[in-house]
Every structure is written in C-alpha cells, then in structure tokens.
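Researcher: I'd like a candidate sequence for this fold, 459 residues long. If you have to choose between options at a position, lean toward the conservative one.
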C-alpha cells in the first residue's frame, strides 16, 4: 500500500463510490477508507428514490419535466432556507449525473410520485445493484484502493495549512496516508448517534433510529476540528411512515397517505394535511398523545399499492401482519383501539370536504405536494397501519460551496477539504425533498472530485 494519493475518500456509500468512480475515470490515484466491513452505509438501506428531471423514464410516462421545475420544487420544500447556489448546482448537474449513472451501470426501474415534487420524479434504483455497479466501475480502473474496516480518526493539515493527512485505524494498527489534491469526506450523517441527536435534535426523542451502522457523525467531527462551519441543524426532522418495528432487520414503511389515506391519532382525529412532506408530518406526529398514529384507507387506495416497492407494497405489509384489515370502520376501530364513532365522523367529514372541493380542517387538496386528487374513503374493506416517525437521515452538516469545498465560519474554503452527500449541510434548508439526498450524494460526489483534481472551484 502506497501512502500518498491524489485523493483520499472517507466513506463508501453513494457519495463516496460516485466520487471514486469519477476519480477512476480521470485516472487519479485514490484511497477509499470505509469503516464498516461492507460498503453502502445508509445508501444501501435507502428507500431507493433519486430525484432527476427530464429523463427518458419520465418521457416514457409522458411526464413533462425539466431542471428548472425541480429547482423550484426544492426551494419551495426547503422554504427558501436552502443555499441557492447548491440547489442550482444540483439543477445544473442533475441530468448529466443521471446519464453518467446509467452509463456506469446503475439501473433505474421506474418513476414514482414522491413527496415534495410537482410531478412524478422519484427514479427507483435497487440500492445493492447501484452500490455494486459503482464499486466495480471504480475498482476496474486499477487506480483506486479500497480498505474496509478502516476507521478514519483524525485529519491533519500540512505546513501550508492544507488538509492533507488522514489518520485511520485498520487491522489493529494506526496508519497515516496523504492526499496531494484533497481529502473528501463522504462519511454520511449521524442518524445512529444518540450523542449527536441528543445535542442537536432533542425534539426527536421517541423517533426510532434507522441508518447505516457507521453513521454516527465522524465526518462532522473531523471537519469541525479543521474549522468547518455547520448548516441546517435547526431543521432536523424525522420521517413519518414507518411501522414501529422498522428499526429491526425489516425497514417496514408505507406511505398510503400519498395515495389518499388519512392520518389519525389515538382519539381518531386527523391532525395534519396528509399531502405535505413526510418530514413535516413527522414533526406533527411526534406531538400526538403517546406518539400514537395510524394511517387509514380503503380498498381503492389499497389497489394502488406497488408490489416490490419500498414505500407502496401494502400487500406485503398486510401479509406480514403489519397492516390491519376490517370490513367496517367500526371493526377497524376496535382492532386498533380508537373510538369507533369518532373514526366514522372523522372519515365522513373528510369525505364530504374533499368531494366539495377541499379539506376544510387541514387544507388537503392533493395527494402529495401539487400532485393528484384525494378520493373519499368509503369502499370496504378498510385498512389501518400503526405508523411512527424514524430518524433515518440527518440533512444537516458541514457548510460547503457549490464545488463541495468545506467552508469555515467566514465562508472561506478550508484548503484541501471537500465534503459530499449526507454530511453536507445547507442544501435542503428547512425541508427535505424525496430523492434529493441520494441525488445530491451522486451529484456532489462527482463535483468534488472534478474540483479537487483541478485544484479549483467548478464554475
Ligand atoms: C431507510 C432509509 C430510506 C431512505 N430513503 C431515501 C430515498 O428514497 N431517497 C433519498 O434520496 N434518500 C433516502 N435516504 C437517505 C439517503 O439514503 C442517505 O442520505 C444517503 O444514502 C447518504 O449517502 P452518503 O453516501 O452520503 O452516506 P452513506 O451511504 O451513509 O455512506 C457513508 C459511509 O461512510 C462510512 N463512514 C462513516 N464514518 C466513517 C469513518 N470515520 N471512517 C470511514 N468510513 C466512515 C459509513 O460506514 C458509511 O458506509 C434514506 C435513508 C434511510 C436510512
């Protein structure tokens, strides 16, 4: 093993592997250090949607879309708190990155309507297939060395104040490697760190924790030591839609509310507009009595399930006993132990309102964001799923510019240090748009490498 490389990449999920494959294509020498014994991090567990616009898959479905619309949606979901140059860089590079992923061997299956988008834009991947294809593309070059079980512990600056050395533990030894061009942090977020969640997101007490085992915020600490500024921490939110058992081996999730289900609390009362971001729904759900909530729907909504899909495979969850089914709302209420009369009234009022042009209580007029029309819940059988909030990705992190250079508190780049993927803050602002996290990991993983190899900002 040599000890000097063009690039050292810390973490091998979507961002790290896209960076490694991009660097390999440019003939750079690269060391990739991955803490766990397998690659993939949270990317491997993901719901598999990537947000791209104007693609062949959308055209096949007759969906008219372009980068500008995606950027508009992202700024709307982020409530304008996102760093506009980062969102615009996503818009500028998203289509090219989609085509690059396809040419690198990543398979996209179909497009789904997902949270925060005004048109169906969730391009589905099979995470394991994508991770393997990217790894193989990087490994084939012969210029990329991979180390698993290699935990990066500290970064060091050289005499020119440039971050250039990485100290890591591997096979029981402490080792040091040097980077001529850059150190790129792609070490993910901290959804598995009780320490950081307690410090930065006490409002998420009670949310279940899901994410890559190694995602405990190491990269954020490493960058902080070098002077990195932090962004978006006040906006940390959980994700609504998980069964309470989802922190086990099976990540059971159903978003029947985006197909038209209503969401109720233990008093059988609705408490939110079900079409808004599942992050914002999550914030409301954590405020409900005993944090108990249920999605309630009927057979026509059930029929819109998508077999094999991570978010919409309702039949599978029913077969697993995670969804309850009953011929009447009274029976359903009894099974899930909510007041039956109240459930009937809640459903009746909701049905009446949406048939009269709009939900009077919480303003629901669509299925998700600007897309789709809600239907009344009145065709038996009826279904219910107990649903909770999960902390699965921390969309806050180190401050970066549009070239993925890590910035200090004065907005100046820290020489030699780049970050991409979930570790980077400033991109999502106040809200996360589905598919934009895997999307930004791929897009900015590549941008970081392009900028680092040129040793200048990508303009
Ligand atoms: C259940 C679930 C569903 C999701 N669904 C979606 C979705 O549909 N669409 C979407 O866009 N996003 C989704 N997300 C979020 C998304 O998966 C992540 O934000 C994204 O995969 C992060 O990619 P990454 O490459 O930045 O980090 P990761 O894929 O997490 O990779 C980071 C890697 O760095 C390693 N690492 C950490 N510390 C060190 C260290 N000190 N030394 C060496 N290595 C280290 C980790 O072990 C890990 O392998 C979901 C997340 C979860 C958990």
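Model: Candidate sequence:
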């Amino acid at each position: 093993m040599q000890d000097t490389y063009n690039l050292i990449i810390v973490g091998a999920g979507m961002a790290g592997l896209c960076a490694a494959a991009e660097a390999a294509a440019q003939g750079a020498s690269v060391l990739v250090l991955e803490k766990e014994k397998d690659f993939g991090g949270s990317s491997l567990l993901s719901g598999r949607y990537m947000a791209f616009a104007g693609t062949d898959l959308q055209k096949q479905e007759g969906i008219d879309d372009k980068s500008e619309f995606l950027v508009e949606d992202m700024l709307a979901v982020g409530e304008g708190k996102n760093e506009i140059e980062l969102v615009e860089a996503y818009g500028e590079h998203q289509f090219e990155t989609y085509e690059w992923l396809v040419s690198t061997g990543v398979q996209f299956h179909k497009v789904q309507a997902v949270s925060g988008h005004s048109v169906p834009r969730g391009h589905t991947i099979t995470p394991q297939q994508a991770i393997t294809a990217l790894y193989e593309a990087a490994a084939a070059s012969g210029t990329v060395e991979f180390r698993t079980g290699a935990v990066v512990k500290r970064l060091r600056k050289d005499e020119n104040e440039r971050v250039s050395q990485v100290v890591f533990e591997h096979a029981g030894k402490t080792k040091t490697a040097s980077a001529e061009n850059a150190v790129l942090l792609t070490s993910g977020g901290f959804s598995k760190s009780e320490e950081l969640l307690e410090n930065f997101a006490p409002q998420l007490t009670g949310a279940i924790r899901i994410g890559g085992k190694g995602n405990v915020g190491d990269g954020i600490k490493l960058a902080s030591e070098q002077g990195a500024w932090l962004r978006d921490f006040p906006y940390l939110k959980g994700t609504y839609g998980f069964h309470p058992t989802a922190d086990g081996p099976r990540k059971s999730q159903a978003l029947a509310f985006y197909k038209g289900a209503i969401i109720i609390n233990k008093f059988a009362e609705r408490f939110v507009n079900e079409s808004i971001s599942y992050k914002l729904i999550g914030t409301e759900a954590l405020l409900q009595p005993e944090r108990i909530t249920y999605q309630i729907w009927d057979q026509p909504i059930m029929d819109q399930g998508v077999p094999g899909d991570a978010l919409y495979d309702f039949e599978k969850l029913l077969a697993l006993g995670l969804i309850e089914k009953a011929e009447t709302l009274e029976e359903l209420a009894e099974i899930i132990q909510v007041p039956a009369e109240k459930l009937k009234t809640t459903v009746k009022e909701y049905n009446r309102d949406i048939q009269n042009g709009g939900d009077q209580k919480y303003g629901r007029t669509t299925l998700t964001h600007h897309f789709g029309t809600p239907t009344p819940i009145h065709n038996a059988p009826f279904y219910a799923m107990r649903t909770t909030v999960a902390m699965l990705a921390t969309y806050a992190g180190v401050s970066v510019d549009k070239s993925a250079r890590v910035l200090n508190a004065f907005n100046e780049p820290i020489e030699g240090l780049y970050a991409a993927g979930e570790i980077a803050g400033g991109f999502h602002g106040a809200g996360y748009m589905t598919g934009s996290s895997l999307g930004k990991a791929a897009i900015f993983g590549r941008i970081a490498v392009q900028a680092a190899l040129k040793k200048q900002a990508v303009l």
